[in-house]
Amino acid sequence: MKFIETLKLAIAAIWAHKLRSALTLLGMIIGVMAVVVVYSLIQGFNTYVDEKIAGIGAKSFNVQRFNPLEDFKDTDTIAAAQRRNKDLTLEDYEYLKERATLIGKIGARARGTPSIVKRGDQILEDVFVSGATAAIADIENRDIAEGRFIVDPENDAAQRVAYLGADVATKLFPVGSPMGQEISISGLPYRVIGVETARGTVFGIPQDNFILVPLKTYANNFGGLIRQRSLYFVATSKTDDLFNDAVDETRFLMRTRRKLPLSEKDNFGIVTPDAITGLRDRLFGTIFIVAIAVPSIALLVGAIVIMNIMLVSVTERTKEIGIRKSLGARQMDILKQFLVEAVTLSAIGGAIGVTIAWIIGRVLTAVFFPTFLSLGAVFIAVGVSMGVGVMAGVFPAWKAARLDPIEALRAE
Amino acid sequence: MSDVTLATLPIEAALQQAQVNGQHRPTSLISMRDIWKTYQMGTEEVHALHGVSFDVNKGEYIAIIGPSGSGKSTLMNLIGCLDTPSKGDYWLNGKNVSEMDDDELARIRNQEVGFVFQTFNLLARATALHNVELPLIYGGIGSTQRHEMATQALKAVDLSDRVTHRPNELSGGQRQRVAIARALVNHPSILLADEPTGALDTHTSKEIMDLFERLHSEGNTIIVVTHEHDIAARAHRILSIRDGLIEKDEKIK
Q1: Which of A324, A326, A331, A412 should be substituted to probe chain B, the one whose Cβ sees the most B Cβ atoms within 10 Å?
Q2: For A72-86, how does the pLDDT look when each residue is reduced to its tens digit (9 = 90+)?
Q3: Which residue range is the domain that position A16 belongs to?
């Protein structure tokens, strides 16, 4: 018997019991859906982290007070790091800038301060204000919608100019261009020089609720660049090949400047993209495995439901099996008929589950959290569903194939 | 079944080998030699058939008659290759069926035997045409040729206008005629009918028996298993079974 005949037969049998097929598939659909939704959340998270790193600059590294991988292991290491590590200074920045030979670009930033921003009657609370040097725009691949980024003379003169996030711009300037307009940040007037393209929300956190001002302006008006306003540097290497060398050189320069003996650990932190993805995998790897494994149980339940229904189906169709055998169906023909039916059933379930999961993924991405579903994952999900179908179908199909034709014909 | 097709069957080689070894190879279509069928009922052995022998030639019209429990159903299952004998040789169209495994039997049923059942045994969800196509599907015949052959078979039983009907849209007589078309579609060596009129009224029964007569006159070999004497009387030879043995074998026409 040709495969296409068997497949037609399977689809006809599934179609003949539409309601029952749909109910049978429910478990399968929910199982596949749950696994795929979780998987696309994980993929989305991973992609987000990767993109974030790319956002900082495809190949850039941070020099900062703490190394989160080393220093934030537990309360002891945090306490030790807080005693040992000192805040970076602008002099450190100048020192690196002057001496580093492998660094391509280097910029300095400070951690932000939630501030009150006003323009006329418009008052915005908790706008995240921080300071940056001109090079940051290039290094962090900032996408400017209107105007321009901060330039070096503005920083040197500590001018009060502001570069706005998209949300801040639209809220303060519902109509008209904000360029050249005056706003008040923490009670002082600033002139708007640029607006960034909207970036949306990530993990429910808006990405456009910020203002960047020249680093020196920030230091003058918000307090010294220490503790919660601590300074950090972002740097790129001259070429991608030199990246690791640039990191090593920077570490060496920092240690030299701080006169650390060989036996001492770094009293500063250098964070590379590899370290970030490594941290992600270390922190979430196990959670991800569990997150996939738990909904997989639903898949197992779905398989058991299919097996159960197939067994009922074999019993119900004993007569049909008898008739087919009397007309010359071999054991393999009957086995194939029921196996293909089970596999087709679960493949349909898998496809529906993936489709629903994809829709849920789109909705999640739109309102809450980035998700990502690769084509490969879709094929794997449908493939696994079919595998589940084989597992669920093989025993009932074998039972059907082994029926004695005389006994089967006698069934009613 | 043409000789050309037979020659291509692998079993033919084995048969020729058997001949060389000097074994008996019958010339008749059906040859049963000392057939026993024994069932194990708990610790007891029950002999449904003990030592049945007979021959059927091509083109014969035979009725097998006997009361219930006589072994006539067992004999029918053996003739139809649904089962194999516990002892003895059964040759069907030159092939020793008694030693075949399940899949070989399935092939013989497909190629050599056309079944007609008391309760028709049509697939309820399938159209008349699809029901008739079933043996061809298992025979591996392509859809165009299959369609052609099935349409032809339905025409032969005067059901050309019922091709797309499902069994529940057909009368009892029509259903039995679909079943007969299905039995004949593969041009089998024997048409084996088990109480073919058992579920039909007198008038329809007569129609079906007339059809059998016509099929016989067209050269088909027909075996009807029945317990009704007037149905048996339409055959040309009657085998009477009682207590697992052939009691009487009489030619009546």
Answers
A1: A326
A2: 778 888 888 888 888
A3: 3-51+287-410
